Every structure is written in structure tokens, then in C-alpha cells.
Amino acid sequence: MKPVHKIVREKSFYKNVLAIALPIALQNFIVFATSMMDTIMLGSVGETLLSASALANQPFFILSLVCFGLSGGATVLASQYWGKRDMASIRMIFSIVLKAAFFISAVLGLAVLLAPETVMGLYSQNPEIIAEGTKYLRIIGYAYFFFGVGNTLLCSIRSVELVKISVVVNSSSFVANVFLNWVLIFGNLGAPAMGIRGAAIATLTARILEFVITMVYVLFIDKRLQMRVRDLFRFDKVFAKDLLVYGTPVLLNEVMWSLGITLQAALLGHIEYASGDPVAANSVTSMVQQLSTIVIFGIANAAAVMVGKAIGEKDLETAERRAHTLKYMSFIVGAAACLIILLLRSVAVDFYNIPEASKALARDMMVVMAVITFFVSVSSISIVGILRGSGDTRFCLTVEMISLWLVALPLAFMAAMAFHWPVPVVLLLMKIDEPLKCLLCMIRMRGRKWMKSVARDFEKPETAPAGE
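The structure corresponding to this sequence follows.
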């Protein structure tokens, strides 16, 4: 059968994509705003605190990607069971994934609490940055336990189109985090000025609040998933095996990608020949890039649900039409994101209290990131969205390993350590995996080999009530 290359024309499809993507985009914006306020407030105290917090948050970044990988693995299965309206299977999938999230969060949390100096030494040779980062890790390490379980569950329930609660959770977290930052970093309202320790306490409090709201909503308020406390203690070998087969590649994908990004941060932290601080400049650049990709990852999550749902309904033609349409959407959104970075690059840098040399470096790095972000849009919506939703997780892992670990990282390390090339060139080579992933994904989606039905057929599945 010839592949269907038609753009979806039904308005209901676009309404459904927006209904999923916009709340997730708003959630991502709130998360971005929280990180931006942290960097602005700490940056106003000094460049050392900005660099220290950026590097100290690298282990937390790894955890966040692991949680995203776990929830992504759950989404591969749950989105297709959602197409079958089999809620009992979905609850079992979430229960197994949350157990894994708790274990991994505990391991990483204990690591940063018990050996903070060692962790900081992996990212910087500057003793002042290591000392300040150690202060931060000794507090923020406790947040790992709450974030791992709460965030994994919050991301997993997107697969059944429960997305509005994420806005409530992150809005509450944002208000709490910014207010406590203002109080504790600078010593307002009679509190002591705690600097980077204050930022850590504020973030820890916000993470606990996120956890409490998420668990209360899912276990006691939500009527669609109907998950209860007893479901958290259930386990099934069949679903565990399915998660290992289809979810493990997603988890490994995110873990390896996060480790690669962490190595990139460590590489920038060890560059001493540059004019300006590459770590501080990269922190500013990353903030602007995150802002520009908010809608991209909202659409990517929507793509996983919409494509997976169609495959779960055994409607491969609809799944292919949706994938083809989403691919073209990725081009348009990527071009818009590129333009946003170019327009905001000078304005954004002036928000930060860093030396002029670091500002100049940040402006140059943003030009590189603007171009790369176009490819980020295409690769993210293809990999995180279309291909994962379709169950083609092994291909996604293979593409990530080849493009990042065999191409981008070796080139970047040679450019920085052997040839001492300019930091913007090093950044370009760091991100060269994105265009390569785009090319490989476009080739993969030319046929239908990427469509894989991963949901099992059970008799008389428990169906979901309508509405969120």
C-alpha cells in the first residue's frame, strides 16, 4: 500500500493538538520563567553564583531527563491503550513507572547529598564555584525525592490527555519559588540574606509543593484515570516486560542525551582560553533557547499522544496523515523559534549582571543556537513525538547514540581541547547532532516501518469516563 501524503484538514485534529500542546507549552513557560528568575536573581549577586548554580543543577538536569524518559516510556504504551480506552492497563503502567522513578531519584539524591564536592569537581576546576555549588547541592539534594515521583506522574498523565493540572502545579511552584528567592537570596522581610543557599531552599520548597498538588489531584480528585493509593503498590510482570521492551530505549535515550549535555556543560566549564566565561554565557543562551522551544515541546508531546492514539485504534492511515501534518508543523514552528532567538539575543543579555566579555560571547553563541533550534524543532517533534508515539523507540535510541555520541561530542572535544577553536564554533559542533537526526528521521518516516502496535488486546477493558 502506498504511503498517504495528505495534510489533515479536519479542524478537530488541530483543536486536539492545541488542547494538549498549549497547556504543556504554558507549563514549560512557567518552568522556564522559574529558571530565568533564579538565574537573574543569582546573577545580580555575582557571576560566581550564576555559574555555580548552573553547574550544580546539572545532576538535577540528568534527573529531570530520566523522569522525562520514564514518563516517555509510559507514554509509548499508555497513549495506545488510551486509544483502546483501557484504563486498568494504563494505571498499571503508571504504577510500575513510578516505582522506577522513586528508585532512581533516591540514588541520585543520595549521591549529591553525600558527595557534593565530588559532584561539583566534575563540572569545574574553579574552587569558588565548587564551594558555592556544594552549598547548593547540600540542600537541593532533598528535592530529588519529591521531584522524581511527582514530575514523572505529571508527565505520564499527558498520555491520557490530562494536561490542565500541570498548569496549576507549575503556576503554584513558580509563585512559591520566586517569592522565596526574593526573601531568602537577598534577605527581605527580615530574613537573613542566604545567597545561593536561599535559592536552594526556595527550589526545595517549590518541589515539595509540586509533589503534594500532583499526588492529591491524581489520587483523590481526577475522575478519568481513577487512580488510587492502592494502585501505587501494584505490579504486573506482563506490563513490566512491555515497559522494558518499549520504554527502556526511551529511558536510555534520555539518559544518554542528558549525560551528553552534561559533558557539554563540563567541556564549557574547562575552557580557559576564551574571552568571557563560557559557562555564564551558555546559561544566558540556554535561557533564551528554552523560551523559544516552549511551543516545540508542547507540540512534540501532543504528537506522541495523537499518533499513538490512532495506532491504538488500529487506524494506520490516520496515524500517517497526522505524522505527515505534524512534520510540516515542525518546520514552521522551528523557523519561528529561530527568529525569536535572533530578536531577543541582545535584549536578553542585558538582563544579566555579567562582564561585557561574557555578554559579547553570549550574543555570538545565540546566533549559532538560533540556527540549531530550527533543527531541534524538527528532530524533537519527530523523535519525542511521532516516532515514540508510534512505538518506534529503538530507532530513536539508535539515532541519538550515533549522532550525539559518535559525531557531535567527539568533534566538540577536539575543537575545544586540541584546536582551541572559538566557543561559538565549539557550540555549533556540540549541536551538530540535531541536523543529522532530522535527516535520519525524514528517511525513516518515508514508509510505514515506524508504526508499531504495542498495546495488548485484553477482554472487556475498563473504559474511561469522558472529559478531564
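Residues 464-468 have pLDDT under 50 and may be disordered.
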